[in-house]
Design a protein that fits this description.
By secondary structure, the chain is an alpha/beta fold. Helix content is 46%, strand content 18%. The protein contains 18 helices and 14 strands. α5 crosses α6 and α8 packs across α15.
């Protein structure tokens, strides 16, 4: 099994170079474990393979704990496992390990071998399990890297689109870029789903996450409830949700059940929830949350929409671009009750996403919202993302940038 896994990993198609590879490389010289966490089939193993090619095939051991032949394997068996690896490959100082969360108390094994001078590159598909275990035994001894499906830039590379010079865009190039953005919002960025578009791979992936990573792992009996909840959330990207209203809608006895189920979906990288920005932590917690999907293609495949969801999917894509950079993101409700899509407190920056800022009614509404927000927050900058670049606007001494969403996504 170990020989087979190693040979399959060596022969793996490494595809386009992922943007996160640079972060993995930067962590190579440090003794810390490198933990790559993210959605199933988002390319974590491929990212490991890209790093392994740079390491050289004679320097590492490879283990894939997703293999069903590892069922029943315990952390106590790792000494014997290491003995087998030495017999097969000789002595090496680097472990490359896939889907480590399938092994109970895996952090004990990692900690023990790190103490002996071994380096680890690890993937996992459950954010909460990884964070809990890392915090208990590997505090300060790991580098965490989140890997999402393809960004818009990676999507273009995968599609072999010629590069765009954003400083000298022709009208035709602008049109081509916008067309590609619509394709990205429709198809998403899951590599296999893009590679084999005629196969229902996004549906299969969604079912795997729901049943294997959530229902089975958390021993959920009310399968119909969590399926209905997931379907509702996937149908409402960038929508506001209230735990209490969902509880009533699904006729569930406890709000905590809804909170737990949504937490399981977040831990499995199916979706994200966003809090309102408020100086009161309590108000942040009880206010409605916004929900965003991990991939627009999955939202399109799973969710129900009676009309094109382009505006919401555009906002979802902007959220994913921001989330790749920071977790410190909020939405904001102004003193007069208007909603700003995103607020980045570290930058004191407001971001509003709209499809057509040139529409007079839309323009008036968005400027009114940002003006109210600027007064309520004392933010220092604001950005409107729409379908075209414009000259900045001056509102009460604050410059509001107006940028093409497609071009902005490419610069992230």
């Amino acid at each position: 099994m170990l020989l087979e896994q190693y040979n399959v990993f060596l022969a793996r198609d490494t595809g386009i170079e992922r943007e996160r590879l640079r972060e993995v490389e930067q962590a190579a010289e440090a003794p810390h474990a490198v933990i790559i966490s993210g959605l199933r089939r988002a390319g974590k193993s491929t990212l490991l393979a890209q790093m392994a090619r740079k390491l050289g095939s004679a320097r590492y051991y490879y283990i894939n704990f997703e293999d069903d032949r590892f069922l029943g394997f315990q952390a106590d068996n790792t000494t014997y496992l290491y003995q087998l690896l030495v017999e097969l490959f000789g002595e090496r100082k680097i472990f490359v390990v896939d889907e480590i969360q399938n092994i109970a108390e895996w952090e004990r094994f990692v900690r023990r071998f790190m103490d002996m001078g071994f380096k680890f590159y690890i993937t996992g598909s459950n954010a909460s399990l990884l964070s809990k275990e890392l915090g208990s035994r590997l505090t300060g001894r790991y580098v965490a890297i989140d890997l999402f499906p393809f960004s818009f830039k990676e999507f273009l590379n995968f599609q072999n689109e010629p590069s765009f010079d954003l400083n000298r865009m022709t009208t035709a190039e602008t049109g081509r870029l916008e067309k590609n953005l619509l394709a990205y919002l429709h198809d998403g960025g899951v590599p296999d789903a893009l590679k084999y578009p005629k196969l229902p791979l996004l549906r299969t992936l969604y079912d795997d996450i729901l049943h294997r990573d959530i229902v089975t792992r958390y021993h959920i009996d009310t399968v119909s409830v969590i399926k209905e909840l997931a379907f509702f959330l996937m149908s409402n990207p960038a929508g506001l949700i209230s735990f209490n209203k969902i509880k009533e809608q699904l006729k569930v006895g406890s709000v905590n059940t809804i909170k737990n189920y949504i937490g399981y979906m977040e831990s499995s990288w199916l979706l994200f929830t966003l809090n309102v920005y408020d100086y009161s932590v309590k108000r942040q917690q009880i206010a409605p949350k916004k929900v965003y999907g991990i991939d627009p293609g999955m939202n399109n495949t799973i969710g129900l929409a009676f009309s094109p969801n382009t505006g919401r999917l555009l906002e979802n894509a902007v959220f994913l671009a921001l989330r790749r950079q920071t977790r410190d993101i909020y939405y904001y409700t102004t003193p007069n009750g208007y909603e700003v899509d995103f607020y980045l407190p570290a930058q004191r920056r407001l971001i509003q996403v709209t499809q057509d800022f040139r529409n007079p009614a839309t323009r008036k509404r968005e400027i009114r919202t940002l003006l109210d927000a600027l007064q309520g927050l004392h933010a220092t900058s604001a950005l409107v993302l729409s379908d075209a670049n414009e000259q900045p606007l001056e509102v009460n001494g604050v410059s509001i940038e107006v940028r093409s969403t497609a071009e902005w996504l490419l610069r992230q």
